[in-house]
Design brief:
12 strands, single chain, ten-stranded mixed beta sheet, alpha/beta
């Protein structure tokens, strides 16, 4: 092994190896410096900010009459085992006026049958206010038990297309995009809508903290008891998520540099998403891409805007427990980031102009 390393070093050149090592050291040092600055800024924000209400009852008493209507869009695909509990949890969210738009993205299992049976769904006529999806809508269903539950059954087209389909049927001024298998704390909608209540129209979106549910006791679509995961890999991810959400995103939001609202939970102005054409279908990082496009649109139009982060919003999700699962997740994240950078850069527009001229 040592002979192979020495052979590689001699073939590459000692100077080249030293340069690569120095570059790595510089990158790591800068990254740690940025993280330290974010930590100090986040600590200052936590100390100086106005503390939010600690109880759901206080939130309800204070904001029930001011809360804007919200459409919760939840795409689902092949989730027949857990979808009934997930929908019941969404319907039980503590909010004065919210509708749940569930989008069945061409599931090949019994997801549709389970939903029809559990919630007494029947076909209804509902106007699609904006046609943003690329695939075919098979039908729209309403519930005889829950008047605020809508199911959109469509051809499979991945998550971005499913969100766009739900966005087309949403009528509320605010939309909350959530994964159907994620778990929101009951007061999550109220905490996400709170910044919009006193806003002058410049607030475009609000994100919340994502926490890892592995190992915790979940029943009926709610986290009943918080526990540590049994495996070490998700435990390390808990630390990673705490750093990302309680330091980096808080600091970036204060500096008007927040580029990502997690696809597991985010609240947006519906009009903003419709104006930019909804989510892009040709990327696996649709959550990063849509926020980046909002930034670019607002800056090009020179309009004042904000994208905020509320750490008290808690959404629980599963984390990979194997190295293969973690590798696939991070590869997807990096692919989405690269697609976003290329898709939103002037280089893409310049390349498109050149190709059009050549034709």
């Amino acid at each position: 092994m040592m002979e192979r390393i020495l052979s590689t070093a001699s073939s590459i050149g000692v100077g080249t190896l030293i340069a690569i090592g120095l570059l790595c050291f510089i990158v790591v040092t800068i990254r740690n410096l940025v993280s330290t600055i974010q930590l100090l800024l986040a600590a200052r924000i936590f100390v100086t900010r106005i503390r939010p209400a600690s109880r759901s009852y206080d939130l309800w008493t204070r904001y029930a009459d001011l809360a804007l209507p919200v459409s919760v869009i939840a795409p689902c695909y092949n989730e027949e085992l857990s979808i009934a509990d997930s929908v019941r949890a969404l319907l039980a969210l503590e909010y004065p006026d919210h509708e749940v738009i569930l989008v069945n993205d061409g599931s090949s299992d019994r997801t549709l049958e389970v939903l029809v049976r559990e919630f007494a769904l029947r076909p209804i006529e509902r106007e699609q206010l904006a046609e943003l999806q690329k695939t075919t809508i098979h039908g729209v269903y309403g519930s005889a038990l829950y008047p605020n539950l809508i199911l959109v059954d469509k051809q499979n087209g991945r998550k971005a297309d499913a969100v766009n389909a739900g966005l087309g049927f949403a009528a509320a001024p605010l939309v909350c995009v959530i994964d159907a298998d994620s778990i929101i704390e009951p007061d999550g909608l109220l905490r996400a809508a709170e910044p919009f209540m006193a806003d002058d129209g410049s607030l475009m979106a609000v994100g919340g903290a994502i926490r890892i549910v592995n190992g915790s006791v979940v029943a009926g679509g709610h986290v009943r008891e918080i526990r540590l995961p049994g495996k070490w890999l998700p435990r390390y991810q808990i630390l990673e998520y705490l750093r990302a959400f309680l330091t980096a995103r808080i600091a970036n939001a204060r500096l008007d540099m927040l580029m990502l609202i997690s696809g597991a939970f985010g609240m947006f102005r519906r009009a903003t998403l419709v104006e930019i054409g909804g989510y892009r279908h040709d990327t696996v990082g649709e959550d990063l891409e849509v926020v980046t496009r909002i930034h670019r649109r607002m800056r090009e139009e020179k309009k004042p805007y904000r994208i905020d982060f509320v750490p008290e919003i808690v959404c629980w999700t599963d984390a990979p427990e194997t190295w293969a699962g973690l590798r696939n997740q991070r590869a997807r994240w990096e692919q989405g980031a690269l697609e976003t950078i290329v898709g939103c850069s002037p280089i893409r527009a310049m390349a498109g102009s050149v190709l059009s001229a050549c034709r």
